Amino acid sequence: MIVAANFKMNKTKKDTISYLKDLKTIDFGNVKVAVFPPFTALLEDELIGAQNAYPEVNGAYTGEIGLEQLNEFNIKRVLIGHSERRYVLKESQEFIAKKFEFFKKHNFEIFYCIGEPIEIRKKGTEAVINYLKEQIVGIDLKYEKLIIAYEPVWAIGTGISAKLEEIQEVHAEIRKLTNRPILYGGSVNLNNIKSILETPNVDGVLVGSASLDVETFKEMIEIVKEIK
User: Which pTM does this prediction carry?
Assistant: First the structure.
């Protein structure tokens, strides 16, 4: 099982150092843990990944960071394709695929996000699957360091998680396309994490706001450790 924390635009470097120190007071057991802080809080730590990066070593890309900056912290894990990058910052599938190929070339562990907006969800599972297939164009689904995160856009930060049957249906369809781990993300919390992780073809969770409190995130890890 995999449990990942996405801080988004929250926490400082000082906060993140304290968070990791507290987080590591528990035994993770067989749970793979990842933490994605903002750029200014990147640290050299085996748990840390970057929320985003530009597909170049360095260069004239104002406001971005590239491989050179990640190498400084020995970071080999990156989040690509998050809905906030797609819908808020208007990243195209072509550019997202370019990022994927660049970081695949450099042997990164890639947490690759896909998810549908509410207007697609209302059309039913078939429409959702067709939409998600458009978000994996140009992506090597056999890449050995790929981790897919299904995050319905309408469930992110809303407090409304997808229904278990919706998660099961979508994850089953994604499983037909790849044997890589598939995470669920979208308003995961202490009340629903166990039932989500007991759903077939769910290999872990990508947690947003609920991960900001380290005690809550530690409790989540403890719950995951108990799931067979």
Answer: 0.94
